[in-house]
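User: Good morning. I'm curious how V47 would be positioned relative to this chain. Could you predict the structure with it bound?
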Amino acid sequence: MRTRIAAARLTDIADRLDAGVRLDAEDGVRLFASDLLTLGWLANRERERRHAGRTYFNHNIRIEATNVCVASCLFCSFARLRPADPESFTLSLEQAWNKLRQRADQPLTEVHVVNGLHPDLPFAYYTDLLAGFKRIRPDVHLKCFTAVEVAFFADLYGMSDEQVLRELMAAGLDSLPGGGAEVFAPRVRRKICHDKCDADRWLSIHRTAHTLGMRSNVTMLYGHIETIEERVDHMMRTRALQDETGGFQAFIPLAFHPDNNQMRKLPAPSASDTLRVHAVARLMLDNIPHVKAFWIATGVDVAQTSLWFGVDDLDGTVQEEHIYHMAGSTTPEALTTKELRHLIRVAGREPVERDTLYNVIPTDRTDGLRETRIGIPS
Ligand code: V47
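Assistant: Good morning! Here's the predicted structure, ligand included:
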């Protein structure tokens, strides 16, 4: 391998990784331009140092309570600007709670909620939503509302970001998902999502969440108009906040899907670009424990391959995902834990079911109901 690393002109980077010396932004840019298999080998070595062959997944459900959204993100195929739009929806609290009630027989460990920015709902809708989920399933972890939603609530209801987080936590919020980060660079945000919270506020909300004792994730939407330097900048800003707080659990690159949105003329990122982004993330983000391939975004085959390119987590069963399927994802809408375990095993890795905070769920609890097929007809 030394010969291949030398041929790829990565000896200095490999040596620094060996010595535990941090890579800098210039290294990140070089890695993006380097030989894919050598990059993958280096990323895999870092992955195996942390997790050996273990590959994490969870038993989760996605609930999107409304797609009404006042923001005009060019990449979004999910949002509808007006509540009167025939394709818009806003679930009543009972309808949202029923999605959890209907799964009483599933040993779910997480509910992941992502919504549009609805201009007319009262704040109590969100606190009641959380409190109701907790009443129905006190054991289930609530990973809800992106930092963009938190900023929107603060502005709409006249509260500070911290007050919003405290009230949501009091109602049952357990952690924040990583959505809404897109690409932190102001140039990109101005072009693709100019009317939602900026990078500094996104990061500040996660800083506050970590200070209040919550964990969170961080995403990066790639494969549209961003440059390599802007991808690396996104990773560096993430790493800097993680140095301060240690509160991020996973970095999640999200592959841009071009169907039915205002950037539909752009091609989707290639499989090799997807492998590259995940691998560079593993090498640059030395302080973030997990790199996740969201299989709905990467596709199942590429997600399996990514397990040899730095990735140690595949998200979960998901169920009822709309954001990617409305943007052209052709993956199933759900996978069972049995299917997840199988696809990890055939990729040569060891499946480990976890909860949102990466506590391992013992395998003896994974028999029976856990394996029931859900969401898609068999
Ligand atoms: O912020 C929207 C992205 C995100 C498109 O924290 C798109 O565990 C690609 O954040 N093409 C929401 N991406 C989903 C999300 C997420 C997913 C999985 C796990 C976690 C976690 C968080 O979806 C948005 C945006 O970046 N998105 N439209 C699109 N057309």
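Residues 26 and 225 are 20 Å apart (CA to CA). Confidence is low (pLDDT under 50) at residues 367-378.
Let me know if you'd like a different ligand tried.
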